[in-house]
Amino acid sequence: MAGLRRFSQAISEGDGISLIVDVHSLEEARSAQSRGAEGVALRERLDGVRDATELPILWLRPGTPEEAVQGGADAYLFADLEDERLEELHAQALDLGLDCVIEVRDEEELELALERLDPEIVLLTGEDAEAVLDLLPDVPAGKLAIAEARQASPEVIAELERAGVDAVLVGDVAPAQT
């Protein structure tokens, strides 16, 4: 079932910046979808998440690409660029139909990621939005850039959007108020 809900397509389509919400429960997954998120991120296996949301799922949990597929993921995060099996695992994830997201923290890691994998999607992490904005100009044209901004205010998200970030990974979303 992986690949049916293309993560890369979800964050590249439409106007404006896409929100990817880090969820920890089925209710949070439903809430994220009803509040306009373009994807959800999982740090732990969440049985039933495929039934709770139609959004593409980014697997942030350590483990193999096979485990991500078994957990319902559409995309897989590679956070360890020093892993000697990186290329093998990347090829495996692609063969399984997963979009691959490569986490980078600085210019050196971005250069290493581009050299080893030439990823379509990069997750820019840093201590704050300023660190992410400093790294953004080094992302080659045609690549999708996601900013990790867990506690970002609407103003920071707007700044990231103006700078050209395609999506932002945000923290938990409270259930929609009725």
Helix-strand layout with pairing:
Blueprint: H1 7-12, E1 18-23, H2 26-34, E2 39-42, H3 49-52, E3 57-59, H4 65-70, E4 75-78, H5 86-95, E5 99-104, H6 107-116, E6 121-124, H7 129-135, E7 144-148, H8 154-163, E8 167-170
Parallel strand pairs: 1-2, 1-8, 2-3, 3-4, 4-5, 5-6, 6-7, 7-8
SSE ordering: HEHEHEHEHEHEHEHE
Number of extended strands: 8
Enumerate how many helices there are, as a single number. 8
Task: Determine the CATH superfamily.
Answer: Aldolase class I
- Quaternary: single chain
CATH topology title: TIM Barrel
> What CATH first level would be assigned?
Alpha Beta
Could you name the ranges where pLDDT drops below 50 across 5 or more consecutive residues? Answer: 173-178
User: What is the SS-derived class?
Assistant: alpha/beta
What is the distance, rounded to the nearest whole angstrom, between the alpha carbons of the first and last residues?
33 Å
Radius of gyration equals 15 Å
Question: What's the overall geometry?
Answer: globular
> In the CATH hierarchy, what is the architecture at level 2?
Alpha-Beta Barrel
- Largest sheet properties: 8 strands, parallel, barrel
Averaged pLDDT, please?
Answer: 91
Structure explained in plain terms:
The protein is α/β, with parallel strands linked by helices. The chain contains 8 helices and 8 strands, in the order H-E-H-E-H-E-H-E-H-E-H-E-H-E-H-E. The protein has helices spanning 7-12, 26-34, 49-52, 65-70, 86-95, 107-116, 129-135, 154-163; strands spanning 18-23, 39-42, 57-59, 75-78, 99-104, 121-124, 144-148, 167-170. An 8-stranded parallel β-barrel has the order 1-2-3-4-5-6-7-8, surrounded by 5 helices. The longest helix is centred in the middle third of the chain and has 10 residues, at 86-95. It is globular. Mean pLDDT is 91; it is low at 173-178.
